Amino acid sequence: MEQLIKQIQQYLLDTDKINQGVLFTTQNPHPLFADNTQVLETAQSDLLNNISQIPGEQTLAFVGIRATIPLSGQKKSIGFLITNFRIIIQNTFSLFKAQPKVSIIAFTQKQQGDQVALQAWEIFFKINALGLSADTLYAIKQNVINITAIVLPQVQALHIFPLPTPVYQDLIQHITALHLDGVLEPLTAQNKPLQDFVTQNKITDLLYGCVKESLLTGVSGLAITKQGIVCKDAFKKLCTLSWAELKDTPLIWDAKHNSFSIEKSTFTLSKQQTPYGSALIGLINDIAEGKVSLQTVTTPS
């Protein structure tokens, strides 16, 4: 990550002044602004505070401006916060205390940098309520394209993102296509470990579950429900995330430790489940994105 930060800083120093005027990085000095660090910290506060955090997420750059809200004189960050996991976009502000919800593009393993940057730009440009000049808009766009081109290949090289998978609108077809039918199971009378997990954690709307057993720790596992996921690993607290929260904060598979982070905890798959970890996380993220429907799946009685 250190080398990546240096490359971004070098881009800032080499680019022209109009681009420098809308780009803020994690290193100083900035060629134009003495308050570079303050601008970046404010952008993090404005864009990250109202969304779920991803463990290990690191801000790399802010591309945008500080808009002054009429009457109050308060400044708000408008633009793109680029991290090692995603691009967070704010394209407007509110005169009131509650600020508009940000848009998020999560990085995946096979995305192309220019496609991601242009998708982010289209989201931003839908609302140009600030009346920004053509030169400023062009500089913002070029910086987003160029910084994404620097960041994305390097974070993809870490292999922390799920691979793209065939997407079926039907959940059962999707599970079968990913060969997860031996990992994710519906609740049946014969599946006592899953029954125990559901009962112990008071899960009422299970669709599919993935459990592991130990004589020492009992049953732990992960449940896919109509509302989101419920996760409980040995000696750790129960974690629950809604599909809306997961859309804002996609899960990241850690192949090195056979686990994924959820809230401030982690969940480790069993040795038999580990080969399916990336596919499982990809499925959960696809459901959260609305690519896979849960409407046709019935909850077992």
Report on this model:
This protein has 301 residues and is of the alpha+beta class. Helix content is 33%, strand content 22%. The protein has helices spanning 2-14, 17-20, 36-48, 113-125, 134-156, 171-177, 192-200, 243-248, 277-288, and strands at 23-25, 59-68, 75-83, 86-90, 103-106, 206-214, 218-225, 228-232, 239-242, 253-254, 259-262, 265-268. The strands form three sheets. A five-stranded antiparallel beta sheet has the order 1-2-3-4-5. Strands 6-7-8-9 form a four-stranded antiparallel beta sheet. The chain has a three-stranded antiparallel beta sheet with strand order 10-11-12. Helix 1 packs antiparallel against helix 5 and helix 4 runs antiparallel to helix 5 (134-156). The longest helix has 23 residues, at 134-156.
Number of helices: 9
Distance between the termini: 49 Å
- The number of strands is 12
What does the largest sheet look like?
5 strands, antiparallel
Low-confidence stretches: none
Strand percentage: 15-25%
Helix percentage: 25-40%
Structural class, please?
A: alpha+beta
Q: How are helices and strands ordered from N to C?
A: HHEHEEEEHHHHEEEEHEEEH
Give the C-alpha Rg.
Answer: 22 Å
Mean pLDDT: 84
Task: Identify the strand order in the major beta sheet.
Answer: 1-2-3-4-5
Net shape: elongated
Fold topology:
Blueprint: H1 2-14, H2 17-20, E1 23-25, H3 36-48, E2 59-68, E3 75-83, E4 86-90, E5 103-106, H4 113-125, H5 134-156, H6 171-177, H7 192-200, E6 206-214, E7 218-225, E8 228-232, E9 239-242, H8 243-248, E10 253-254, E11 259-262, E12 265-268, H9 277-288
Antiparallel strand pairs: 1-2, 2-3, 3-4, 4-5, 6-7, 7-8, 8-9, 10-11, 11-12
